[in-house]
Design a protein that fits this description.
Keywords: Methyltransferase, Transferase. Helices cover 28% and strands 24% of the residues. With 228 residues, the chain is an alpha/beta fold. The strands form two sheets. Strands 6-7-5-4-8-9-11-10 form an eight-stranded mixed β-sheet. Helix 1 (30-40) crosses helix 2. It starts with a strand and ends in a 6-residue tail after the last helix.
């Protein structure tokens, strides 16, 4: 699949996929969007002292990089799991110029399917696969970054069963954030049990984003393996 580097309005780069007519990040600001939606509204809103972050769509690793930087700044240990069906090569990601921190390269060159300590405050596990089939009761995330391509481009990722699987595996108080504020997505999240908020979007970007919170535990469902 062909990908083209394009620069966004905050000066940071993203990848454009002509086949899908879709960008990996907002053209209004790649880094600005990721920082606002996933770090400020997600990670920093979590009360978990040692959060387990689950990212749906590892992509360029920008969300993971910002999480790593935040974990080290706050001295707050994070276990980070990224699920990606179509991994990018390090050479392609490096060309985006996100960071010269050696830890960023380690995010992309780390082994798959095993825990890898990137820093004393950041442990990474990358899973190559489809989130629709790999999510199970062992995940227990406290924060979910839902960063799949847009529903009209990747509709198979925005379905009630996947949201239900995430809800069941999450701890009470768990948070899911996403850039997509469409009414149909908000209703799907509510249908599986999340309390959903519409929050202001990133500066200069989308008007609204969504944050969903699990407010009631469901231990009975959590004992079973969740499959579509």
């Amino acid at each position: 699949m062909k990908r083209i580097i394009e620069h966004t309005e905050d000066g940071s780069a993203t990848l454009f996929v002509p086949e899908l007519n879709e960008h990996y990040h907002s053209v209004k600001g790649a880094r600005t969007e990721s920082q606002h939606i996933f770090i400020d509204m997600g990670l920093k809103a979590s009360a978990a002292p040692q959060p387990h972050v689950l990212e749906i769509g590892f992509g360029t690793g920008l969300n993971a990089l910002l999480t790593l930087e935040t974990a080290e700044q706050e001295k707050r240990p994070v276990h980070y799991t990224g699920i990606e069906l179509y991994p990018l090569a390090w050479e392609e990601v490096n060309a985006l110029g996100y960071s010269d921190n050696p830890s960023f390269e380690r995010l992309h060159t780390a082994s798959w399917e095993e825990d890898v300590e990137i820093s004393p405050y950041f442990t990474l596990r990358k899973i190559k696969g489809d989130a629709n089939t790999v999510i199970n009761s062992s995940f227990s995330p406290s924060v979910v970054y839902f960063d799949a391509f847009a529903p009209e481009k990747q509709p198979e990722m925005w379905n009630e069963q996947l949201f239900r699987s995430l809800y069941v595996t999450m701890n009470t108080g768990g948070i899911l954030t996403t850039y997509c504020a469409k009414g149909v997505i908000r209703r799907l999240l509510q249908a599986v049990g999340f309390r959903v908020e519409r929050l202001p979007g990133p500066p200069g970007g989308k008007r609204e984003i969504l944050r969903a919170t699990k407010v009631i535990g469901n231990q009975e469902l959590k004992q079973s393996i969740i499959q579509p």
